[in-house]
Amino acid sequence: MHALVGTIGVLLIVTVLWDVFETIVLPRRVTRRVRLTRLFYRTIWQPWSAAARTIHQGKRRETFLSIFGPLSLLVLLTLWATTLVFGFAFIHWAINSRLGTPGDGSGFLLDFYFSGTTFFTLGLGDIAPVGALARTVTVIEASVGFGLLALVIGYLPVLYQSFSRREVNISMLDARAGTPPTACELLRRHQEADSMSSIDQLLRDWESWAADLLESHLSYPVLCYFRSQHDNQSWLAALSTVLDACSLVMVGIDGMPKWQAQLTFKMARHTIVDIAQIFNAAPGKDDGRLTSEGLAELRAALANSGTALRNEPGDDATLAELRAMYEPYTEVMSRYLMMPLPGWMPKARAADNWQTSAFENTSPAREQPFKKCIAGAATTDARVHRAAASSDPRD
Q1: pLDDT digits (tens, 9 = 90+) for 21-37
Q2: Residue 111 sits in the same domain as residue 250
Q3: How confident is the model at residue 297 (pLDDT cuts 50, 70, 90)?
Q4: Angle at the Cα of 168 (from 56 to 176), degrees rounded to 5?
Q5: Do 255 and 146 reside in the same domain of the chain?
Q6: CA distances (Å), origin 74, targets 78, 81, 220, 222, 288
Q7: N or C terminus: fewer CB in 10 A for the chain?
Q8: What is the pTM of this model?
């Protein structure tokens, strides 16, 4: 019996320490399906998401979902520590560690108490190990507890730095592509501002963002559960919008080169596919996110803004092929993480996040001065740009 309990204790310690190594230290995706962390998140995410689906009010549901990421991280750290304490307590009980106590207490509860005070390096001094083997196990446990604490102290700042880097570009996309962001609005606003040439640099920045997203979220998958500051924004919606915009540019837009769009598309598609593999989320079928009527509406909206999307024979099929490369993955991740995907067209009467405030209680009528101001500024900038381009440098 003692040998079996001791073996269980050793297995618990080895399992937790290896899981901590893979989760915090190892900078790559772990393909093995049987993992303590993976089982933990699968077990608690299902009831959490099921409870969220019962909340019908959108903001309350998002608030409830936003708690999951940080809270699950704290629970996971507690699970690791508790399991290690139990593991060392099993070893102490199995080897019949002689513990010097003020009284005559003995048994597993005393071993568990001693293991807890040793793991967290409390050093109360009310219990002391007696014997070489008990002292050796005590030193090992204190070292493990101190090492885990050091890893956690270094782990949390790295995690939140990755989260902050992710959110910067998402917040900047608000003014460029609307809220929620859409590919149509992204192209329309740049066209109205006579700034289509800047889209190439924008896509280059988003290529770097997608690469950073891939590296950080493969190393720390818990970041996928961390939601953005605003309810109508998410890393998945931003990634989907960038893929949509790249697809349109790759089909063909007058005056826009395709090379950077192809590079960004490849990087962004690589990111969403690998992240979906973390959760074993098999891609589903196209649910009609862009129908033939929607595509015709999209072409008309772009044409009205002065952006001509190529409409040669085979272009619709090309766009469908590009969408089939990433939309099944974004859709399955959207259902799993409960992060809504934006459409291809902006919502009617939608205000950007920068236009709204809880103090001002901005209404659609009050948004018009904002829109007129921005439109006027864009027109002025375009005139200045054309005047500068047509002027003679010798004047």
Answers
A1: 988 888 777 666 678 88
A2: no
A3: very high
A4: 80
A5: no
A6: 6, 11, 14, 11, 39
A7: C
A8: 0.84
Token output for 153: 């102290």
Instruction: Report which of residues 232 and 2 the model is more confident about.
Output: 232
C-alpha to C-alpha distance for 61 and 381, rounded to whole angstroms: 41
pLDDT at 329 over 90: yes
Integer Cα distance of 37 and 145 in angstroms: 19
**Number of domains the chain contains:** 2
Confidence of residue 360 (pLDDT cuts 50, 70, 90): low
DSSP state letters, 57-113: SHHHHHHHHHHHHHHHHHHHHHHHHHHHHHHHHHHHHHTT-EEE-SS---SHHHHHH
Q: Are residues 100 and 234 in the same domain?
A: no
Beta-carbon contacts of 6 under 8 Å, excluding residues fewer than 6 positions away, are 90, 91, 94, 95
Place of tokens 């596919």: 273
Extract the tokens encoding 181: 């962001």
Encoded tokens for 228: 């953005």
